[in-house]
Write a structure and sequence with these properties.
Blueprint lengths: L2 E3 L4 E3 L5 E3 L3 E4 L8 E4 L4 E2 L20 H12 L4 H14 L4 H18 L5
Antiparallel strand pairs: 1-4, 2-3, 3-6, 4-5
Length: 122
């Protein structure tokens, strides 16, 4: 399984978003792959944008979703295709203790949202 290095450090912004204050590293594919994504300090995110109807099942304030949300937003901002970014999101959720079924549902929901809202969304 892929892995993070370090913890997540976010600073709230006046616009309701969050700014990363320390880098976030994610090793792609599996631990030891030596393929890294580095989310740099200063990257701004809205964290998990979960529709109101799904909030009883998926609380956007759940800390287990934060790293994966930052990673997903960064990958989308760098031009990753929504299916690839959504797969990384689901894998990152699992690495933070979210059950596989829930992580899979959340990954599919993010992908469906990107499909419904068009290019650049996700």
């Amino acid at each position: 399984m892929s892995a993070y290095t370090g913890s997540l450090a976010l600073v709230p912004m006046p616009n309701g978003h969050w700014r990363l204050s320390c880098p976030l590293q994610w090793e792609i594919g599996r631990k030891g792959s030596k393929l890294w994504v580095l989310v740099p300090p200063g990257f701004e995110t809205d964290l998990a944008s979960i529709p109101f109807w799904a909030r009883p099942l998926f609380n956007p304030a759940d800390a287990r979703f934060a790293k994966a949300s930052v990673l997903h937003d960064y990958l989308i901002s760098k031009g990753w295709a929504p299916p690839s970014a959504s797969a990384a999101f689901a894998e990152a959720l699992t690495a933070d203790g979210v059950g596989k079924w829930r992580a899979s549902i959340m990954g599919l929901a993010v992908l469906a949202y990107a499909h419904l809202t068009g290019p650049g969304a996700g």
